[in-house]
Specification:
A 7-stranded mixed sheet has the order 3-2-1-4-5-6-7. A 7-stranded mixed sheet has the order 12-11-10-13-14-16-15, with helices on both faces. The chain has a two-stranded antiparallel ribbon with strand order 8-9. Helix 3 packs across helix 4. It contains 10 helices and 16 strands. A hairpin with a 4-residue loop joins strand 1 and strand 2. The N and C termini lie far apart (about 45 Å). It comes from Erwinia sorbitola.
């Protein structure tokens, strides 16, 4: 992939850009194999590759510059701004959106936030595109509610210019720290749900719910989990750290008892909405801490699927899974190092199969799916 920003030394987010893509994947596979070398693996499946460019469905843009000439992109450590509108990781459709947003920021009087001076209002623009229908979710991250009325008044003109805008909101992030979003979300459109669909599963995305940035590879990941679970013929499973329900909803059948647990109430609302649309009657989702739920639950499902954040599932949940002894554990991880540590704690399980999914080309990061069986 060619990137003018990288060549000019202005952006180094894609640290592996100079490495040929196939070699990148080979290095990730070697890293994964090294992490699991002390655990016998029944089957290594070939890595699932990504498109090398235009694969991202979302943009997180720092807003800098002036209200008359805003820049959308990032800030270097010294405060130097870099415009990332031409980043080749974004789909072509984003260019027209960025082109409309710059004059809109000026018309709405959304003064970009100055980190050094701690002045201004507009901190970030967060843009997400549905691969299902091309509709957009646009979030303005503001320092306070001061400009919300101006933003709301100016919004109809932006909606006319960008009819694909389905969801617009303002997020309030008042602290002077490198935190992208705050707790308060103010809806600016009646609709706050971005409709998405991966494979044949309808998914719903609310402004503060997490969703994968590489939908093509995410679809492959969910489809693979479905295939593996189907082979096991289980009648009950837990989906811990379930997010908007992508894994569980792909794996569930009308006859299966599925319990999905996620700390985010917004994500759970999305999962429930999707389950209703699919007509699944034996599915329940709850906004709880996954470890607290699992360690307090008396019943034992045949399969526990875990999809934790980068920190992994941790010693407490591993110890309880050892005690609870489900026949199968399906572990999806965005951090193979913590996954390997967790597997080391699950001493009563053997690795049946492993597959790498290259969700993040040109970086050292990747996703991995691992099936564990009780021995």
């Amino acid at each position: 992939m060619h990137c003018a920003l990288y060549d000019a030394g202005r952006c180094r987010s894609c640290q592996w850009l100079e490495t040929p893509y196939i070699q990148q994947v080979s290095q990730k596979q070697s890293h994964l194999q090294q992490l699991l070398e002390s655990h016998p693996v029944g089957q290594w499946l070939p890595p699932v590759l990504s498109q090398p460019q235009k694969f991202r469905n979302k943009a997180k843009m720092v807003v800098s510059g002036s209200v008359e000439r805003p820049l959308l992109g990032m800030l270097h450590r010294d405060g130097t701004p870099v415009d990332l509108s031409d980043c080749p990781l974004y789909p072509d459709s984003f260019a027209a959106v960025f082109a409309q947003l710059r004059p809109f920021i000026a018309r709405a009087g959304l003064t970009p936030y100055n980190v050094a001076r701690r002045r201004g209002e507009l901190k970030y623009i967060l843009l997400t595109e549905s691969q299902h229908n091309g509709q957009l979710m646009l979030r303005f991250v503001l320092r306070s509610t001061t400009k919300v009325a101006q933003l709301r008044a100016a919004l109809p003109e932006l909606q006319r210019a960008l009819p694909q805008l389905a969801v617009v909101s303002a997020n309030i992030q008042p602290v002077a720290m490198a935190i992208i979003e705050g707790e308060e979300e103010i809806p600016l459109t009646d609709n706050q749900v971005l409709a998405e669909q991966l494979n044949d599963v309808p998914l719903s995305v609310l402004p503060k719910s997490f969703f994968q940035t590489n939908p093509q590879v995410a679809a492959g990941l969910y489809a693979t989990a479905r295939e593996w679970v189907k082979e096991l013929q289980v009648s009950a499973m837990w989906d811990l750290f379930c997010g908007v329900g992508g894994f569980g909803l792909h794996c569930a059948t009308p006859e299966m008892q599925l319990t999905g647990i996620e700390i985010s109430q917004q994500a759970i609302a999305c999962a429930q909405r999707s389950a209703e649309r699919m007509g699944l009657k034996k599915v329940s989702f709850a906004a709880l801490d996954s470890t607290a739920f699992a360690t307090g639950e008396g019943s034992v499902p045949e399969l526990v699927l875990v999809n934790p954040p980068r920190r992994g599932i941790g010693a407490e949940l591993c110890a309880y899974l050892e005690k609870m002894a489900p026949p199968w554990i399906l572990y999806s991880s965005c951090n193979a190092e913590t996954m390997a540590s967790d597997i080391g704690r699950l001493q009563s399980y053997r690795i049946v199969r492993v597959q790498l999914f290259d969700m993040f080309p040109h970086t050292a990061h990747y996703e991995v799916l691992t099936l564990l069986q009780r021995v």
